[in-house]
Fold each of these.
Amino acid sequence: MGMMEDAKETVQTAAKEAGRHIEDGIDRVKDKVDEIKADAAVKKAEAERESVAMRNEAKERMRD
């Protein structure tokens, strides 16, 4: 039975290690998604800032 128990332990260890690798991969993907969302929010804010500046310039020209 020693060989079967060794094999069982090996399989369990491999399964745990695989589980850890999968969790690490999931965490990396979540981190990347968060990064992409943050970049998109920055780009949106910059676009809004430019839009407001252009609108204010147009209003200023109309006042002259």
Amino acid sequence: MMRKFIYDSWNSVMDHKNNPLRHIPDLNVRHMAMQILAWMWCVAFSMYFGSMWVFGMTAIAHLFIIGAIVVTVATFSSAKTMNWTYRTPSRARAMYHNGKRIELDKNDVGGEHE
């Protein structure tokens, strides 16, 4: 019961699909709004504790955490849409062995990883 309450509370604030920012149609704008809120809370907590050192440490910590999340999401998103066929476009259309030219198949698209 308590675990579900904590989970739902966390998602109601931190999950962009559940919090009020879900009404912003552009994901980039939604992400920027979450970053601004994160920095605002970073400043608010450091002012509460009364130290600019706290602000500096929490700002850097937020920067690294948000940056890691952004890189992870970008990697996962690009993995879905990326064309995973690899071909070396600059591969020569002929090979040489002992000074003699060996013609390659004209239908061969090239690339070492076919």
Amino acid sequence: MTVRRRGASPLTVTLLVGAASPSDAAQLATAVAERDRGGMFEAGRVRLARVAAGTELDAIG
């Protein structure tokens, strides 16, 4: 999932998120980017990531 920040300090961030749908992935990725980086982000490119079975991902909590 790629998200972009608009404004005076543009920034593109690529995040790996687990979600049930591309729409859910976009919402989650923009929320994480806004929380961690500040500013307003918009969803860009959504791609299916292939993750090996049993791979642990960090949870947001």
Amino acid sequence: MTGFVELLPLIVAVWLLLAGLYGTVTTHDLVHLVLSVAVLHSGAWMLLLGIGHHPGVTAPTVDEEVAGRELADPVVQALTVTDVVVGAAVTALMLALTVRIRRRFGTVDPDELRVLRG
């Protein structure tokens, strides 16, 4: 049972990555595309959390209580927090671009945006 619990974040991450990739490839709506990319991005930071998790380690704080115990790697945690912030910024930018495209061209269907084709 312990092995399954350790693999659960990785299984969820792969599922989110596949669901986001499927939504990104099959969509015909820019808003759905933005949400699919957000799900894909959630899978990425879930993968980081799954890789950085090790049972039996404590938080990377320096206390008298954690002296002599193995500490978790703070780099993975810092990368995950940075990844979440960057993902929120990218999602906001993509939604803003979607709103601008809707106002200018009157549609959010990428197939109807003939002007954007070279």
